[in-house]
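re: the backbone from monday

yeah here it is again, tokenized this time
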């Protein structure tokens, strides 16, 4: 579905593989963002990476030359907390097998992040400190009846020179050890869909590097999908990555810099 021309649509950008790989900005990303804003389009940042606090994401964006505020950023940590809060009592204990972004989101939602049982819920997300002890604590809590929430199921994240195991790999370990399947909060699931609509409105385009999450989010929103090949997707799927879908989405470009002019032509106010 094409966004309503009567309203300027929001460009919802993924981060890993679109604007940066690891700690390195992707060349041209900042210039692409500036072009879109100069054309009157709003930018928002919607990431499945739950490991960072929102303020840290904002600082990282500024570090690569992209201005942002906390209100412009939604992560799968935010989605996980929003998913849990209505069903748990205020102050409920949530065991965190994830990074500080999840801890921040839980506190903001009125929940209590903990590192040990007892727990009313378990949230699992990407973090580099995952080890056997965490696997034991998280899976034990899930077996004991705690609600099991995954921030997302992305198998990998792109970094300079390759890929890292993603949240999906950690979730799979906890699911295997607990014998339970996780509820999923992030892209492309309904908690993230609802957050995007609430925060950014009903007209937009999704930019991402992963058809199975970014492309599926676009489909769930009824928005166009713009695929960049600077992350985990290629014409032939790399190990740990994905292939360009057949049929291809309406926009496919090498990177954000080359994508930006096409988005301006399609969605900027006053464009034909």
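seq for it, each position gets an aa:
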């Amino acid at each position: 579905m094409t966004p309503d021309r009567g309203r300027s649509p929001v460009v919802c950008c993924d981060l890993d593989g679109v604007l940066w790989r690891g700690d390195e900005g992707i060349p041209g990303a900042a210039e692409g963002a500036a072009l879109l804003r100069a054309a009157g389009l709003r930018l928002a940042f919607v990431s499945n990476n739950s490991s960072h606090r929102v303020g840290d994401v904002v600082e990282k964006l500024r570090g690569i030359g992209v201005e942002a505020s906390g209100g412009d950023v939604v992560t799968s940590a935010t989605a996980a907390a929003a998913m849990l809060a209505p069903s748990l009592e205020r102050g409920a204990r949530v065991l965190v097998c994830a990074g500080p972004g999840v801890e921040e989101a839980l506190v903001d939602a009125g929940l209590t992040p903990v590192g040990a049982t007892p727990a009313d819920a378990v949230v699992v997300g990407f973090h580099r400190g995952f080890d056997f002890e965490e696997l034991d604590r998280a899976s034990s809590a899930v077996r004991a009846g705690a609600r099991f929430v995954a921030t997302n199921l992305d198998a990998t994240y792109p970094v300079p020179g390759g890929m890292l195991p993603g949240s999906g790999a950690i979730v799979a370990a906890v699911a295997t050890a607990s014998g339970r399947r996780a509820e999923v909060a992030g892209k492309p699931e309904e908690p993230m869909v609802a957050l995007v609509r609430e925060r950014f409105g009903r007209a937009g385009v999704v930019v991402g590097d992963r058809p199975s999450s970014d492309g599926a989010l676009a489909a769930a929103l009824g928005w166009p999908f713009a695929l960049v090949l600077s992350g985990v997707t290629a014409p032939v799927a790399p190990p740990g990555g994905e292939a360009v879908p057949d049929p291809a989405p309406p926009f496919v470009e090498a990177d954000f810099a080359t994508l930006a002019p096409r988005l301006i032509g399609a969605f900027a106010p006053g464009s034909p």
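The radius of gyration is 18 Å. Residues 80-184 form a domain with the Rossmann fold fold (CATH 3.40.50.1000).
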